[in-house]
Design a protein that fits this description.
Number of strands: 20
Strand content: 25-35%
Shape: globular
Strand order of the largest sheet: 6-7-8-3-9-10
Distance between the termini: 16 Å
Length: 540
């Protein structure tokens, strides 16, 4: 339930703020344009927008965390408790960073120093700002770790960041931010890299901590669904402009600006067409699939200490023209299963594709068949070679699987598939770094579809994309499936996406199927407690 701010006193006020980057003040690129908003004491305000909207730039400007040789403020004021932070020198700013204004960053693994135990990093702000002893600082931080839900905090205090899960690392960052009981907490995409159940836990933790300490929270995010369940007011940014400000209820019920309406309309909607299983043929079959990883000791003899059952005795069928969704949290085995079924990961069990056994084939026998099952990976930037042009990337498979085509015929096919995925011919000679995330994912899809496969493994293909781009890619995949009658094995932890694209859904936990069924049946009448937990965490 949304609560009202504790007081009507303004804590932070941003007036006509403009931010520009460049070495010389006369040669800059302006990325934030005369924006105005304020935050009341104890209020939860969300700053939303897609990548490049300027929301993180604005948040970092509050604490002046940009490279001071690169950033310029052509206009504006940032008033904290009535004082303009833009006029403060570095020494004065340092006194309020972490004390009166604290920040939680998007990726805790890169925010925490990997060479120091978390305890050493946790007590630093307390010793710096509160001038208390190391022993007293340790005791207080162990209490805070316990308050944020870290199990056995006295033991975790000496752990290194890599020894903690993603959710635990984010809890450590929250504990560090709350160490000095700040008046304002800035949370920059604090749940983006986390599973849906961990997202819900972190969101509830922030809400509880906000009430416990009475602080104001500035939440930076592109997830409108998350905002709806956390914030009291929303500011919407687009390309450096603040286009709309309203209460949560008002904005979701009566959005005024066309861009806000566009964001709200970009939430995934049902894209799959009705599917007749009685008339369909099984394309891919897996029986008793097992993939276990041994845990071995260090040293010369590598003694086996145990094993991880990434996939444990799983059976699965994928029909021709069907989208089968696989959901589960990180470590559930969903990606490993997909790689096993395409013989990209060693495993045991029967694998049959298009009525032909794959598990008994040697790699040399398997290679000619690979054009029939392709993969689109999660991060299009790392899965596309930065040294190859679009023409080389998309056409590489044609050279291997269609050697009879000459250079001109290959180029014609490449141009046709680029146009089919919404790209242009003049992009042929450009490199991946010259494209946006959505365009790079379209290139990755074109690379897979050009071989006319019967099945594509889609491993979190939209998780790195903004909501509007995500919807465009999902619509593209649906249209390509309808045209080419391809099957999709769609892996995701985003239940809204899975619901939009899948005909059937499999829920995985700890390497096993715990529930499966047709999409609406599973969403409407979930049976397993874990499925119910996932649905609750995704704010369905």
């Amino acid at each position: 339930m949304i609560k009202t701010p504790n007081t009507e006193q303004t804590l932070l006020r941003i007036k006509n703020l403009s931010v520009a980057f460049g070495r010389e003040a006369s040669q800059t690129t302006q990325v934030v344009n005369n924006i105005n908003f304020d935050i009341q004491q104890g209020e939860k305000l969300a700053l939303v927008g897609e990548s490049g909207s300027g929301k993180s730039v604005t948040a970092l400007s509050i604490l002046r965390l940009h490279d001071m040789q690169q950033v310029h403020f052509p206009s504006g004021q940032i008033e904290f408790e009535g004082q303009d932070l833009l006029q403060w020198n570095e020494a004065r700013l340092r006194r309020i960073r972490g004390k009166d204004i604290a920040m939680i960053f998007q990726e805790p693994m890169t925010s925490l120093n990997p060479v120091y135990p978390i305890g050493t990093q946790l007590i630093e702000p307390l010793m710096l700002h509160e001038k208390i002893s190391k022993k007293a600082a340790k005791q207080r931080m162990i209490e805070l770790l316990d308050l944020t839900g870290i199990p056995e905090p006295h033991k975790r205090f000496n752990a290194y960041p890599h020894m903690l899960s993603g959710g635990q690392r984010q809890r450590v960052m929250i504990a560090m931010a709350l160490a000095c009981q700040p008046k304002l907490l800035i949370a920059d995409e604090p749940t983006t890299a986390l599973d849906v159940t961990i997202q819900l836990q972190i969101l509830e933790l922030l809400d509880n901590m906000q009430q416990e300490f009475g602080m104001a929270v500035l939440l930076i995010t592109h997830d409108l669904n998350l905002v709806k369940h956390f914030a009291q007011r929303i500011c919407v940014m687009k390309k450096g402009d603040l286009v709309e400000t309203a209460s949560v209820n008002e904005l979701f019920a009566f959005p005024k600006h066309s861009y806000t309406q566009h964001l709200l309309n970009s939430q995934p909607t049902t894209l799959q067409t009705p599917f007749d299983y009685k008339a369909a043929q099984i394309l891919l079959k897996g029986e008793e699939i097992k993939c276990h990883f041994s845990i071995k000791s260090s040293g010369l003899f590598k003694k086996k200490l145990g094993e991880i059952k990434a996939v444990d005795d799983v059976c699965v069928n994928v029909y021709q023209g069907e989208t089968l969704g696989i959901v589960g949290e990180s470590g559930s085995g969903k990606t490993t299963l997909g790689l096993c079924l395409l013989r990209l990961q060693h495993c045991e069990g029967l694998i049959e594709f298009n009525q032909q056994r794959l598990d008994t084939l040697k790699l040399s026998q398997l290679r000619p068949l690979r054009k029939d099952f392709q993969v689109v990976f999660q991060d299009p930037y790392s899965s596309l070679s930065p040294r190859m042009t679009v023409e080389d990337i998309v056409g590489e498979g044609l050279k291997i699987h269609f050697p009879q085509l000459n250079k001109q015929q290959r180029r014609e096919r490449i141009i046709n598939i680029l146009q089919e995925v919404g790209l242009e011919e003049n992009m042929l000679w450009r490199y991946p770094h010259e494209f946006s995330g959505g365009q790079r994912q379209r290139i990755a899809i074109a690379r897979a579809v050009i071989l006319e496969p019967k099945l594509i493994l889609l491993d979190e293909p939209t998780s790195a994309l903004d909501v509007s781009v995500q919807k465009q890619v999902l619509e593209l995949l649906a249209s390509l499936q309808a045209k080419h009658r391809m099957s999709y094995l769609f892996i995701s932890h985003d239940l809204k996406v899975i619901r939009a694209v899948s005909h059937r859904i499999i829920v995985m936990q700890q390497g096993q199927f715990i529930e499966y069924g047709e999409t609406e049946q599973l969403f409407t009448y979930p049976k397993h407690p874990y499925t119910k937990t996932l649905l609750h965490a995704s704010f369905q």
